Amino acid sequence: MSDPLLEVTGVAKRFGRVVTARDVSFEVAAGEALGLVGPNGAGKTTLLDIVAGTLRADAGTVVLEGRDVTRLGAAARADRGIARSYQVPRPFGGLTVYENVLVGASFAGRHTRTGPADDARAQAWHALEVTGMTEVANTPSGSLRLLDRKRLEVARVLATGPRLLLLDEIAGGLTDSELPQVVRLVRRLRDDGVAVVWIEHVLHALLDVVDRLMCLAGGEVIAQGDPHAVIRSPEVVEVYLGSTVDTATDPAPGPATTPTGETA
Ligand SMILES: Nc1ncnc2c1ncn2[C@@H]1O[C@H](COP(=O)(O)OP(=O)(O)OP(=O)(O)O)[C@@H](O)[C@H]1O
């Protein structure tokens, strides 16, 4: 890997007796997409929150571009280029799509990969173009279908000009015909040089994009590396994939369901 953009080392977190991260370490390079999988309650969202700075780890370090950001809060990390999407998008329903994205753009610090540094409007519009939302720019966000709500969530964080994008289940609930649009979007962001960490239960969508895959279980990394090697790893099959994947013949689970049994 080239110089890592993000280095997470020895992260630990527990809530009372529940261990959600135990000595978790991983790296992500600029322009690399890392997939994050694992059974429900494995600690994936907790890890994203620790990287984003919305949750403080009990131990370990988070380093971005060689600078230790472990003690920085979420706003300061956002200023340095870390952006996080949420599993359940909650746009300001009374505002249009464009206005919602403009709110994100107005938080952009000096990291402006996506547009002119001093022009939040241009940056918001660029985020709409990249996410394919210009045609619904003036639509009230409260009336959007699920796919567009998901795309708006990505546009909102993209408008902040991130170097590292943390995506939380943006494919969940989409139909088979909608999924390729999300896959193309994440691939484009990655190809534009943004580093991506993507939590996703819809494995075939994830495997279409990610360069590496990491599987968590019980707060521990049980496998990371080449995506197809990871999903074939006996431990991953046992604790996460169960019988949904024929690892001998099928490199990716079928599109109908996720390993957690949700409909993709
Ligand atoms: N604020 C909190 N207080 C107490 N327990 C918590 C808190 N946040 C998370 N947990 C617990 O930590 C564990 C890991 O949760 P987390 O949401 O990180 O898992 P996950 O892998 O993202 O799961 P899912 O795939 O279901 O979203 C769970 O047992 C959860 O109940």
TrEMBL record:
- In its UniProt entry, the species of origin is given as Promicromonospora aerolata
Q: Write the protein's name.
A: ABC transporter ATP-binding protein
Q: Which GO terms describe its molecular function?
A: ATP binding
Do you know which Pfam families this protein is assigned to?
ABC_tran, BCA_ABC_TP_C
Annotated signal sequence is: none
Which keywords does the record carry?
Answer: ATP-binding, Nucleotide-binding, Transport
Q: What InterPro entries does the annotation carry?
A: AAA+_ATPase, ABC_AA/LPS_Transport, ABC_transporter-like_ATP-bd, BCA_ABC_TP_C, P-loop_NTPase
Residues forming the ABC transporter domain are 6-243
PROSITE patterns named among the record's database cross-references: ABC_TRANSPORTER_2 (PS50893)
